[in-house]
Q: What sequence folds into this?
């Protein structure tokens, strides 16, 4: 703001940036049950190594040569996210704007507005290796309004699913103006060897929110959440050579951000049942009775609805607090500027609430025909040969016939809302940049080029590299 002596106190910075995630296997384990990078989908689980029972996904192989074909395939995910954008930051010295008498040595207040125009592109990189031989064509069963598939890759994109689809090599992208940050700050301490600034601000949501149709959707901004920001900047001189106009400084920045509550589309599981969001259900007792009444035994065993359509709701999400701490060393000469630094980022776990749950759905038993089973899981079928003759209890004991459907009805207390939240995490970033400046020009300029790498131990953290080129001017 002060680089131009007789200027208006304004400074504009443009940053062209781009980056991409790394370690796809680690990221894949965040999306899968049991934190695996590869999943085995089979018709049965005889050896305990099956991760997904294919029946839940409407995968049903046709008979060949008069024999039923057992399905088996290996699924791999290679998720990746790429980002490119243009960051815009403008800061103005309020003292210069509202006063004719200006002293650069005095403390001043300033206002800043910033936003990035961003394009985010994501892909789940779903691939499948089928180890059984069968006719690989979708088909229907007479008497059912359902489509059955012969591969998990096609089943993950079936038309019956309104949410939770997983694409293959196709990429989803979103280009938007991300959230706008408006800040008001002041110089608390200002002298030759030290500068301390403090600021308050508001985050105005202009990006997009998730619609839940696909897993790992591109999101620009913070999902339409308003926010409050507060922080400080400390710049101290470690060494100075006035004769050669060289200086070594240390900068510390603390930036806090609190995002307020808003509604989002999220998918969730049942307690102690990873990926139960994809399990097959009966919508209500009427549908279970319909399955029981069907004369076609095969159709009676297959009738169901996809769980993902039931276990995806509009939830109240509060992202809460995040904190960024940055420390850097800056070397400057008459025209050169270099910087190396470390950034620490920490975020609280989200708080998620479900606004009401309408009872009715129940987990379908493996054999269907109107039977339900509250113990069934995405990788295990626990059907018993006959219903438990004891009176209905709150705890599910076995497979229940349609006349005892209410015993296995899913209640609000069965829902695991933690499966719909992003947990707390920490990440680390190292970066470096080189640049040049021309303060003697009528409108002082600078250019800067840099790169960074972010990483963390947990699988919910994006390991990614970023490069940028900055241009700034004072006027």
A:
């Amino acid at each position: 703001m002060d680089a131009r002596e007789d200027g208006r106190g304004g400074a504009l910075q443009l940053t062209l940036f781009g980056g991409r995630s790394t370690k796809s296997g680690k990221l894949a384990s965040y999306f899968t049950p049991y934190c695996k990078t590869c999943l085995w989908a089979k018709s049965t689980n005889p050896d305990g190594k099956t991760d997904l029972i294919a029946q839940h996904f409407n995968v049903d192989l046709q008979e060949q040569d008069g024999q039923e074909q057992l399905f088996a395939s290996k699924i791999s995910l290679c998720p990746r996210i790429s980002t490119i954008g243009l960051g815009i930051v403008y800061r103005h010295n309020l003292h210069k704007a509202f006063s004719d008498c200006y002293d650069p040595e005095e403390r001043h207040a300033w206002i800043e507005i910033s936003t990035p125009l961003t394009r985010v592109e994501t892909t789940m990189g779903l691939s499948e290796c089928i180890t059984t031989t069968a006719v690989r064509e979708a088909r229907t069963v007479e008497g059912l309004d359902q489509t059955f598939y012969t591969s998990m890759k096609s089943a993950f994109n079936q038309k019956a699913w309104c949410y939770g689809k997983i694409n293959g090599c196709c990429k989803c992208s979103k280009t938007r103006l991300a959230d706008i940050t408006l800040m008001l700050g002041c110089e608390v301490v200002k002298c030759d060897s030290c500068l301390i600034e403090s600021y308050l601000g508001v985050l105005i949501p202009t990006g997009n929110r998730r619609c839940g149709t696909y897993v790992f959707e591109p999101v620009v901004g913070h999902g339409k959440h308003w926010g409050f920001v507060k922080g400080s900047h400390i710049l101290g001189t470690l060494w100075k050579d006035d004769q050669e106009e060289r200086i070594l400084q240390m900068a510390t920045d603390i930036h806090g951000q609190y995002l307020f509550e808003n509604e989002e589309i999220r998918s969730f599981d049942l307690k102690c049942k990873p990926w139960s969001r994809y399990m097959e259900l009966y919508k209500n007792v009427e549908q279970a009775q319909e399955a029981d009444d069907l004369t076609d035994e095969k159709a009676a065993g297959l009738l169901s609805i996809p769980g993902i359509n039931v276990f995806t709701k509009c939830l109240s999400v509060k992202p809460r607090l995040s904190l960024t701490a940055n420390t850097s060393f800056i070397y400057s000469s008459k025209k050169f500027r270099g910087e190396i630094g470390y950034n620490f980022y920490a975020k609280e776990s989200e708080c998620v609430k479900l606004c009401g749950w309408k009872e009715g759905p129940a987990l379908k038993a493996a054999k269907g025909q109107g039977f339900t089973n509250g113990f069934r899981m995405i990788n295990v079928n626990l059907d018993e040969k006959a219903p438990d003759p004891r009176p209905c209890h709150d705890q599910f004991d076995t497979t229940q016939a349609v006349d005892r459907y209410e015993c296995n009805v899913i209640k609000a207390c069965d829902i695991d809302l933690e499966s719909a939240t992003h947990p707390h995490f920490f990440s680390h970033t190292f970066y470096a940049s080189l640049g040049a400046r021309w303060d003697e020009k009528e409108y002082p300029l600078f250019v800067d080029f840099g790169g960074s790498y972010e990483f963390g131990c947990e699988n919910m953290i994006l390991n990614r590299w970023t490069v940028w080129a900055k241009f700034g001017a004072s006027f």
User: Anything to note?
Assistant: The longest helix spans residues 285-293.
